[in-house]
Amino acid sequence: MTERLDHCIRFGRIAATLPVRDMARAHAFYTQVLGFTKTFENGTPARFMILRRDAAELHLTLQESYEAAPFPVAHLMVEDVDALHRICTARGIAIVKGLRDEDFGLRAFVFADPDGNRIDVGQPL
């Protein structure tokens, strides 16, 4: 017997978990470049960390042998995509897909973090 898909369960937040090979480097990138704040860490040295900025939450997990996927692993909506693109470019962050207006209604670009995780950034047109 299967339950109906409209089962009246309300879903809450969902947070992306990014594997990283170097937790200190990832922490520095997301806090110093993107302005996230660490709200939790587990382990000494840290093997798991939660970062937040505004409504965004990101989980980092230490995986020393991790190889990044060749596609975006997270999508980040922002209010000023052009400003974030300028920051990323000025800091020498790898831009995987340049800033453009997409036919699906977003102005967007894709960058890669120091571990190669591709983050798709967008703002509604």
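The above is record 1. Record 2 follows with the same two-line structure.
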Amino acid sequence: MKIADAGIAWTGLYVASKVVFALEERLGVTGGPKVSPDGYLTYGPGEVASAQWANAGSGVLIMAILLAGRFRFRGRWTYRVTLAAHWLCTAVAAVGAAGMLGGAVLTDRGGAIFGAYCAVWAVLLCLATVDLRRRHRSVGR
């Protein structure tokens, strides 16, 4: 299995979680910190579901970026945009992991499970990015 495929599958778990939360109109994420009832006060009717659908959409976008990285690029522009998108996704997952794990360790809010999920996600994204670079460089030889 290609590492990008593993990243796509791992991201699919996030998307599935977000779809469930959207259908149930719940805030949060599977394995994440508990959301207090006060967390819902800033949302109007239907906005919680909309926010979760947007999160699911961001996951689908990450899956598309990983899929795009599986293609061979002839143009420098296409390769660089895809590479930058890969690194951006990796950075966001790494920051999410650090924030969730740090918050779980330093406070009592919880979220260690999702933090660990994000850490694995960041590693998979990073490996897919490194693989994209390696494959691109080997084409030129």
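The CA atoms of residues 4 and 70 lie 7 Å apart.
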